[in-house]
Task: structure prediction
Amino acid sequence: MSLVQRISAFLRSPRGQQLVDRGRRQLAKPENQRKLRQLAARLSSRRR
Result:
């Protein structure tokens, strides 16, 4: 079983679904969205 297949199987499992749901709830928070935008800006400026 390849790594991608194992990850896909995990994400379909109940525990994987719990983690996905928790991640979605965290991403819905404005402070986490702000942190991600700041990180993306830092990473994109580093490439130039």
